[in-house]
Backbone:
């Protein structure tokens, strides 16, 4: 996002065009709540009074304006235009007219829509407001004129948003409205040459189609899509009684806001002051206040996130904590963000009590209930100069503390990562380049990935989540051998000896976990230690069943533990191994071979003239690789390397070996001396 997009985004200028035609005067399904405290007993309750679609629409618009002006005192401007037989501006871009009281005064002068009576002399339409809205968007705000006056050669982008609230018959009617609005934008851009006007670079058009709850509407919702380089269209169809919920949902998206519900607020009952009850209050604020919670533990984040009842957005529930009277809270000094808040239902008694409580100089701590039942303070509510803010409390180290060591986890909390074991694991799985040509049916990278997948089938990250890796005096070499692709009979016996050693330790009633590895206060009982150890060992062995010998180790564990029912698992696994061996005649390479080891003769089809019986060369060694490479080079280019002089003068014996006499020049020197 460029600097101009950050200074003047689409929500810098928002224009509402509200349909004021007689059709919007029809009743909706939303009724006016009335509380009769002195109604006589046995009397007939009065008939409910339903709001008109105009009342529902204009209430939603005013609530939209109130929330925006509460959270953004500057920089976010809203303009409201009504349209019936003509368009009327209820306010302009001036900061003096950006308040709810000014809007209420002009709405009282406007009055409700006219009665729905056929009158050919009057033409009611929402289209009259399109030209007024396009002209309003071309008008420069004070911030845009100030930025344009600066000589920095940066063009000010005039981006805006227009929300049209009307009632259409079907989708073609929506297309006609969009087309007429687009034409008005193009016309306004042609005449936007005055000093206080600016062409519209882009507009986000949102059409909210509302209708009475008793009918079915044929207009369908459409997500935001591009109509032209200067216009994007978004369509929503909603009954009049639910238009407030829809506009609130759009408000959160337009201004990147989030919802927080403060739960468990103790409050005295209005009718009975001696008793109290807990209430919930929902507030809006910038979405960045939730960044710390959402980026923390996923399980803890899911525990506090809940969908708002009757709405399409989510809210985070934070519990009310005991407030403090001291204004100099030590928790304020470790806060990371600070944002204004505003209540969602400003007319409710719980919201009014909470706001009054905070404006009186009190502070409220909000706790995050974790999934495991623990609590942690996440936010603080506090007021400054009559404005209420939400503070995000830092959950990690402050900048004044020393940086965490490598053995410490995120947030500076000391963890128990198996760093030493992970270092050994990396050393055992080092990859080295090779010049050997790969065959078409073999990929060394895939072999390396498969090997890593097998060795990490069960690999706990921290020491506190495992027992068998903390008992290497009993479980080694079983832990190292079971991850191999093949096991010899001797290796199987070594694994069984480890199981027998654990059985002997259990019979002697020895402790498995030492106090240095765990909290002594929370140390498990001996029976629980062995129960957890056997369960983990069984999980480890089941994760490494590659051959029949691997199954023998697991079968030994079942026999020692007396689990006869588990023998069916062994039988099925053995049958699967026998079937796979019958279908695959190729040789299974041992896990000691690295992924870069040279292939066997059966696999490559290349015969190397190396007498393994007479020359003690490990077929998996670097020397073997060098010999093969030299033979291949000589086969391709015999003159690439000169042959040894002794080998050229050697004599082949009957057994095929070459015989060369050393120091032949000594005989030549002796003959020369005798001649002299």
Residues:
């Amino acid at each position: 996002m460029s600097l101009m997009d950050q200074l003047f985004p689409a929500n810098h200028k928002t224009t509402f065009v509200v349909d004021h035609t007689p059709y919007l005067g029809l009743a909706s399904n939303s009724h006016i709540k009335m509380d009769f405290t002195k109604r006589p007993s046995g009397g007939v309750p009065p008939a409910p009074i339903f709001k008109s679609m105009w009342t529902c629409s204009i209430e939603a618009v005013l609530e939209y304006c109130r929330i925006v002006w509460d959270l953004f005192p500057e920089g976010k401007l809203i303009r409201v235009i009504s349209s019936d037989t003509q368009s009327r501006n209820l306010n302009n871009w001036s900061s003096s007219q950006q308040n709810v009281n000014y809007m209420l005064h002009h709405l009282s002068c406007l009055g409700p829509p006219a009665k729905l009576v056929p009158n050919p002399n009057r033409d009611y339409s929402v289209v009259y407001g399109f030209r007024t809205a396009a002209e309003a968007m071309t008008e420069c705000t004070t911030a845009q004129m100030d930025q344009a006056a600066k000589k920095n050669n940066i063009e000010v982008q005039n981006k805006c948003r227009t929300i049209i609230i009307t009632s259409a018959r079907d989708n073609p009617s929506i297309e006609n409205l969009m087309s007429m609005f687009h034409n008005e934008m193009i016309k306004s851009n042609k005449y936007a040459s005055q000093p206080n006007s600016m062409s519209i670079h882009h507009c986000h058009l949102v059409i909210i189609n509302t209708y009475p709850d008793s009918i079915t509407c044929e207009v369908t919702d459409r997500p935001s899509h591009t109509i032209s380089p200067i216009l994007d269209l978004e369509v929503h169809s909603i009954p009049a009684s639910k238009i407030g919920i829809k506009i609130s949902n759009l408000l959160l998206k337009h201004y990147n806001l989030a919802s927080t519900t403060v739960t468990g607020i103790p409050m005295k009952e209005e009718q009975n002051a001696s008793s109290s009850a807990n209430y919930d209050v929902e507030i809006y604020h910038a979405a960045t206040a939730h960044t710390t919670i959402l980026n923390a533990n996923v399980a803890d984040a899911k525990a506090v996130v809940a969908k708002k009842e009757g709405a399409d957005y989510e809210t985070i529930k934070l519990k009310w904590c005991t407030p403090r009277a001291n204004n100099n809270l030590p928790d304020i000094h470790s806060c990371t963000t600070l944002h204004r808040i505003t209540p969602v239902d400003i007319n409710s008694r719980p919201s009014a009590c909470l706001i009054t409580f905070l404006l009186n100089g009190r502070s409220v701590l909000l706790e995050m209930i974790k999934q495991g039942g623990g609590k942690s303070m996440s936010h603080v509510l506090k007021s400054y100069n009559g404005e209420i803010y939400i503070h995000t409390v830092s959950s990690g180290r402050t900048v004044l503390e020393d940086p965490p060591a490598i053995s410490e986890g995120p947030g500076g909390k000391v963890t128990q990562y198996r760093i030493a074991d992970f270092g050994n694991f990396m050393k055992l799985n080092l990859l080295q380049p090779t010049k050997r040509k790969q065959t078409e049916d073999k990929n060394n990278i895939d072999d390396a990935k498969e090997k890593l997948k097998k060795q990490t089938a069960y690999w706990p990250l921290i020491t506190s989540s495992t027992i068998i890796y903390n008992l290497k005096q009993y479980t080694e070499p079983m832990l190292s051998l079971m991850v191999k692709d093949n096991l010899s009979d001797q290796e199987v016996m070594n694994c069984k000896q480890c199981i027998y050693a654990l059985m002997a330790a259990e019979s002697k009633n020895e402790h498995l976990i030492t106090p240095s590895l765990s909290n002594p206060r929370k140390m498990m009982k001996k029976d629980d230690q062995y129960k957890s150890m056997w369960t983990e060992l069984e999980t480890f062995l089941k994760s490494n069943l590659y051959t029949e010998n691997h199954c023998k180790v697991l079968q030994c564990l079942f026999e020692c533990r007396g689990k006869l029912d588990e023998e069916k698992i062994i039988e099925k696994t053995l049958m699967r191994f026998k079937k796979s061996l019958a279908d695959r005649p190729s040789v299974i390479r041992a896990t000691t071979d690295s992924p870069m080891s040279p292939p066997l003769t059966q696999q490559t089809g290349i015969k190397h003239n190396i007498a393994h019986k007479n020359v003690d060369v490990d077929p998996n060694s670097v020397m073997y690789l060098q010999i093969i490479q030299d033979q291949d080079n000589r086969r391709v280019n015999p003159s690439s390397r000169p042959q040894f002089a002794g080998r050229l003068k050697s004599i082949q014996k009957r057994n095929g070996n070459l015989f060369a006499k050393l120091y032949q020049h000594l005989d030549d020197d002796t003959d020369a001396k005798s001649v002299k």
Observations:
- The chain is about 35% helix and 20% strand.
- The longest strand covers residues 257-268.
- The mean pLDDT is 79.
- The two ends are 99 Å apart (CA to CA).
